[in-house]
What does this fold into?
Amino acid sequence: MRVGMVVNDINTELAAYTTTDLAMNATNMGHEVWYISVADFAYDPDEMVHANARRVIDKKYRSNQVYLQSLRDHTSYRERITIEDLDVLLLRNDPAEDVIARPWARLAGINFGRLASKHGVIVLNDPDGLTQAINKMYLQYFPSKIRPRTLISRNKTDIKHFIKEQGGYGVLKPISGSGGRNVFLVQPADAPNINQMIEAVSTEGYVIAQEYLPDAIHGDTRLFLMNGKPLCCKGKYAAFHRLRKQGDADMRSNMTAGAVAIQAHITDNMLEMADIVHDKLIQDGMFLVGLDIVGDKLMEINVFSPGGLDSASQIEKCNYFREIILSLENKVSRKESYTGNINNIELATI
It folds into this structure.
């Protein structure tokens, strides 16, 4: 296969990223993997999508650090490729990272990916599905019984009234964001400061106010779904539990906020949640997603470059990345068998 990896910026990628593991495993399995920064696309007068891209030299890699270093140094191949010549284009950029500094970049992967899919490239996750899920409001399309009670507004009075209804407790976060940035836990003692909290979050747009789930103090569980079902390898689910550092007053469980990953206990309730979201994810062409679960509620559905799969792989001693590449191989094979009579959304979760 010829695979394209769309990222925010090649120079800011990290060895620990799930994208790096996916690329290295695909390379080691004999596939050609091209990295593309969202700033490096072009739609030419010939009506084809091109990109300035890079890939490592063909050999076996054992280290993510070495792989990424090889991608950036002078030994890497650097070419202006035709996107339509790729078999698969993985949209691994996170639009939330570009909200403030590079707003023009947020939709670049989706827009160029949509053009590529029209020319027969398998684009994952499906660009039209990602357009619906461009912010955290996507969660509201799923059944209310699995979601925390939520208000989405920029009106301070409405937000404060919502918090009051929750007994003075709640969580405030931006509708577009990642990594736990500008996420606040509101408690009754914070009433004098709630205006400042709302202002800080609203600088990025609409504010999501959610009921506070007491179980959040014990962290959350990320469960990965592939093709609409829990990703498994050797009977082990691709998942991990994020736990705040002991004694840390920060309520966020993001790894970037200092949380640690431990083995997850996957309950029947979690599997039921996965089953409930299945149909909508299939409808939207969501190939690979991460569910963030607290207690009996689904807090977030990560559809843009869900990370942490390396943690699950290390904890469970399973190569989930290989399972993903094998699924991509199957999609390419199935597409060839259908000779153009199957669309991108169907291929995304087949």
